[in-house]
Protein backbone atom coordinates (compact mmCIF):
# COMPACT_ATOMS: atom_id res chain seq x y z
CA UNK A 1 0.00 0.00 0.00
CA UNK A 2 1.13 3.56 -0.69
CA UNK A 3 2.93 4.96 2.38
CA UNK A 4 0.65 8.01 2.57
CA UNK A 5 -2.43 5.78 2.58
CA UNK A 6 -0.86 3.58 5.25
CA UNK A 7 -0.44 6.58 7.54
CA UNK A 8 -4.01 7.68 6.85
CA UNK A 9 -5.25 4.25 7.89
CA UNK A 10 -3.05 4.41 10.99
CA UNK A 11 -4.35 7.77 12.20
CA UNK A 12 -7.62 8.25 14.05
CA UNK A 13 -9.17 10.77 16.43
CA UNK A 14 -7.47 9.68 19.63
CA UNK A 15 -9.80 9.48 22.60
CA UNK A 16 -7.19 8.87 25.32
CA UNK A 17 -3.67 10.27 25.27
CA UNK A 18 -0.69 9.04 27.25
CA UNK A 19 0.02 12.05 29.45
CA UNK A 20 3.55 10.81 30.19
CA UNK A 21 4.68 11.11 26.57
CA UNK A 22 5.72 14.47 25.16
CA UNK A 23 6.47 15.56 21.62
CA UNK A 24 10.11 16.43 20.99
CA UNK A 25 11.05 20.00 20.10
CA UNK A 26 12.23 18.78 16.70
CA UNK A 27 8.92 17.09 15.90
CA UNK A 28 6.93 20.06 17.18
CA UNK A 29 8.92 22.34 14.89
CA UNK A 30 8.15 20.01 11.97
CA UNK A 31 4.43 20.20 12.73
CA UNK A 32 4.61 23.99 13.01
CA UNK A 33 6.34 24.18 9.65
CA UNK A 34 3.69 21.93 8.10
CA UNK A 35 1.02 24.31 9.36
CA UNK A 36 2.98 27.33 8.13
CA UNK A 37 3.31 25.83 4.65
CA UNK A 38 -0.40 25.05 4.39
CA UNK A 39 -2.40 26.37 1.49
CA UNK A 40 -4.85 29.22 2.06
CA UNK A 41 -6.95 31.42 -0.18
CA UNK A 42 -4.66 33.95 -1.90
CA UNK A 43 -1.98 32.84 0.58
CA UNK A 44 -3.34 35.29 3.15
CA UNK A 45 -3.37 32.87 6.12
CA UNK A 46 -5.93 34.93 8.08
CA UNK A 47 -5.42 33.12 11.38
CA UNK A 48 -3.08 32.45 14.27
CA UNK A 49 -2.27 29.13 15.90
CA UNK A 50 -1.93 29.32 19.67
CA UNK A 51 0.13 26.52 21.21
CA UNK A 52 -1.12 26.10 24.76
CA UNK A 53 1.48 24.39 26.93
CA UNK A 54 0.49 26.03 30.24
CA UNK A 55 -1.30 23.31 32.26
CA UNK A 56 -3.38 25.86 34.18
CA UNK A 57 -4.75 27.36 30.99
CA UNK A 58 -5.51 23.92 29.62
CA UNK A 59 -7.36 23.02 32.82
CA UNK A 60 -9.46 26.17 32.36
CA UNK A 61 -10.20 25.29 28.73
CA UNK A 62 -11.22 21.69 29.48
CA UNK A 63 -14.73 22.52 30.81
CA UNK A 64 -15.31 24.68 27.73
CA UNK A 65 -14.46 21.62 25.62
CA UNK A 66 -17.12 19.39 27.15
CA UNK A 67 -14.65 18.06 29.73
CA UNK A 68 -12.73 16.02 27.17
CA UNK A 69 -9.60 14.49 28.72
CA UNK A 70 -7.52 15.06 25.59
CA UNK A 71 -7.33 18.78 26.43
CA UNK A 72 -5.18 18.17 29.50
CA UNK A 73 -3.60 14.78 28.73
CA UNK A 74 -2.20 15.40 25.25
CA UNK A 75 1.36 16.64 24.88
CA UNK A 76 0.18 19.89 23.29
CA UNK A 77 -3.04 21.76 22.68
CA UNK A 78 -3.30 23.85 19.53
CA UNK A 79 -5.99 26.48 19.10
CA UNK A 80 -6.63 27.57 15.53
CA UNK A 81 -7.99 31.09 15.76
CA UNK A 82 -9.25 32.92 12.70
CA UNK A 83 -9.13 36.67 12.32
CA UNK A 84 -12.57 38.13 12.87
CA UNK A 85 -12.03 40.48 9.94
CA UNK A 86 -9.69 41.04 7.02
CA UNK A 87 -8.94 44.01 4.83
CA UNK A 88 -6.45 46.19 2.98
CA UNK A 89 -3.72 45.98 5.62
CA UNK A 90 -3.62 42.17 5.43
CA UNK A 91 -3.43 42.26 1.65
CA UNK A 92 -0.75 44.96 1.63
CA UNK A 93 1.31 42.92 4.10
CA UNK A 94 1.05 39.84 1.87
CA UNK A 95 2.13 41.83 -1.19
CA UNK A 96 5.12 43.24 0.72
CA UNK A 97 6.09 39.71 1.82
CA UNK A 98 5.64 38.37 -1.71
CA UNK A 99 7.78 41.16 -3.15
CA UNK A 100 10.58 40.64 -0.62
CA UNK A 101 10.52 36.83 -0.79
CA UNK A 102 10.49 36.59 -4.58
CA UNK A 103 12.63 39.64 -5.23
CA UNK A 104 10.12 41.36 -7.48
CA UNK A 105 8.91 44.94 -7.64
CA UNK A 106 5.68 45.61 -5.76
CA UNK A 107 4.38 47.55 -8.72
CA UNK A 108 4.24 44.37 -10.79
CA UNK A 109 1.90 42.90 -8.15
CA UNK A 110 -0.49 45.86 -8.08
CA UNK A 111 -3.03 44.19 -10.37
CA UNK A 112 -3.20 41.12 -8.13
CA UNK A 113 -3.32 43.38 -5.07
CA UNK A 114 -6.30 45.32 -6.44
CA UNK A 115 -8.02 42.07 -7.47
CA UNK A 116 -7.76 40.68 -3.95
CA UNK A 117 -8.99 43.91 -2.39
CA UNK A 118 -12.02 44.10 -4.66
CA UNK A 119 -13.01 40.54 -3.78
CA UNK A 120 -12.28 40.67 -0.05
CA UNK A 121 -13.71 44.13 0.55
CA UNK A 122 -16.89 43.11 -1.23
CA UNK A 123 -17.69 40.65 1.55
CA UNK A 124 -19.77 41.50 4.59
CA UNK A 125 -18.02 41.35 7.97
CA UNK A 126 -19.90 38.14 8.75
CA UNK A 127 -18.83 36.59 5.44
CA UNK A 128 -15.22 37.60 6.09
CA UNK A 129 -15.23 35.89 9.49
CA UNK A 130 -16.72 32.70 8.01
CA UNK A 131 -14.23 32.73 5.13
CA UNK A 132 -11.32 33.21 7.53
CA UNK A 133 -12.57 30.38 9.71
CA UNK A 134 -12.64 28.02 6.73
CA UNK A 135 -8.95 28.67 6.13
CA UNK A 136 -8.08 27.12 9.50
CA UNK A 137 -9.42 23.78 8.28
CA UNK A 138 -6.82 23.76 5.49
CA UNK A 139 -4.09 24.32 8.06
CA UNK A 140 -5.53 21.58 10.26
CA UNK A 141 -5.38 19.13 7.33
CA UNK A 142 -1.65 19.76 6.95
CA UNK A 143 -1.18 19.16 10.67
CA UNK A 144 -3.08 15.87 10.51
CA UNK A 145 -1.08 14.59 7.56
CA UNK A 146 2.33 15.69 8.86
CA UNK A 147 1.64 14.24 12.30
CA UNK A 148 0.60 10.91 10.82
CA UNK A 149 3.92 10.75 8.95
CA UNK A 150 5.69 11.15 12.32
CA UNK A 151 3.35 8.66 14.03
CA UNK A 152 2.05 11.45 16.24
CA UNK A 153 -1.63 11.45 17.14
CA UNK A 154 -3.94 14.41 16.60
CA UNK A 155 -7.54 14.82 17.65
CA UNK A 156 -9.31 17.67 15.83
CA UNK A 157 -12.12 19.18 17.87
CA UNK A 158 -15.13 21.29 17.08
CA UNK A 159 -16.77 20.28 20.35
CA UNK A 160 -16.06 23.34 22.45
CA UNK A 161 -17.53 26.74 23.28
CA UNK A 162 -15.58 29.30 21.20
CA UNK A 163 -16.70 32.30 23.25
CA UNK A 164 -15.36 30.71 26.44
CA UNK A 165 -12.02 29.77 24.86
CA UNK A 166 -11.78 33.29 23.46
CA UNK A 167 -12.31 34.67 26.95
CA UNK A 168 -9.74 32.40 28.60
CA UNK A 169 -7.04 33.19 26.04
CA UNK A 170 -7.93 36.85 25.52
CA UNK A 171 -8.46 36.30 21.82
CA UNK A 172 -11.16 38.90 21.26
CA UNK A 173 -8.74 41.71 22.11
CA UNK A 174 -6.45 40.34 19.39
CA UNK A 175 -9.22 40.30 16.79
CA UNK A 176 -9.27 36.50 16.83
CA UNK A 177 -11.86 33.77 17.31
CA UNK A 178 -11.18 30.14 18.24
CA UNK A 179 -12.45 28.05 15.34
CA UNK A 180 -10.78 24.69 15.95
CA UNK A 181 -8.90 22.84 18.66
CA UNK A 182 -6.35 20.10 18.03
CA UNK A 183 -4.81 17.96 20.76
CA UNK A 184 -1.46 16.48 19.77
CA UNK A 185 0.53 13.69 21.40
CA UNK A 186 0.64 9.92 21.67
CA UNK A 187 -2.21 7.46 22.06
CA UNK A 188 -2.58 5.60 25.33
CA UNK A 189 -2.37 1.83 25.10
CA UNK A 190 -5.74 1.69 26.89
CA UNK A 191 -7.50 3.69 24.16
CA UNK A 192 -9.65 0.98 22.60
CA UNK A 193 -10.57 3.24 19.69
CA UNK A 194 -7.19 2.61 18.05
CA UNK A 195 -8.21 -0.96 17.33
CA UNK A 196 -11.48 -0.11 15.61
CA UNK A 197 -11.71 -0.54 11.86
CA UNK A 198 -11.92 2.78 10.03
CA UNK A 199 -15.46 3.45 8.83
CA UNK A 200 -15.77 5.45 5.62
CA UNK A 201 -18.10 5.57 2.62
CA UNK A 202 -17.21 3.33 -0.31
CA UNK A 203 -15.80 4.80 -3.51
CA UNK A 204 -19.15 4.15 -5.18
CA UNK A 205 -20.99 6.18 -2.54
CA UNK A 206 -18.47 8.99 -2.32
CA UNK A 207 -17.31 9.77 -5.85
CA UNK A 208 -19.23 10.96 -8.89
CA UNK A 209 -17.47 10.92 -12.25
CA UNK A 210 -19.01 13.07 -14.95
How do the strands of the widest beta sheet line up side by side? 1-2-4-3
Order of helices and strands: HHEHHEHHHEHEH
C-alpha end-to-end distance: 27 Å
Uncertain spans, ≥5 residues at pLDDT below 50? none
What is the average of the pLDDT values? 97
Number of strands: 4
- CATH architectural category: 3-Layer(aba) Sandwich
How is the main sheet built? 4 strands, antiparallel
* Overall number of domains: 1
Q: Could you say which overall geometry the principal axes of the C-alpha atoms support?
A: globular
The CATH homologous superfamily name equals: NADH Oxidase
**What proportion of the residues is helical, as a percent range?**
40-55%
Oligomeric state of shown chains: single chain
- SS class: alpha+beta
Query: What top-tier CATH class fits best?
Result: Alpha Beta
CATH fold type: NADH Oxidase
Strand content: 5-15%
Rg, rounded, reads 19 Å
Number of helices: 9
Amino acid sequence: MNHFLETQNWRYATKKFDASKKISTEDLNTLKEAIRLSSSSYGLQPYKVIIVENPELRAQIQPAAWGQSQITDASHLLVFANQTSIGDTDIDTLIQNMSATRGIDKETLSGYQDFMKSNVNGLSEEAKAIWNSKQTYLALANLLNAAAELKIDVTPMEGFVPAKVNEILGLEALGLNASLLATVGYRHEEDATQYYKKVRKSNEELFITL
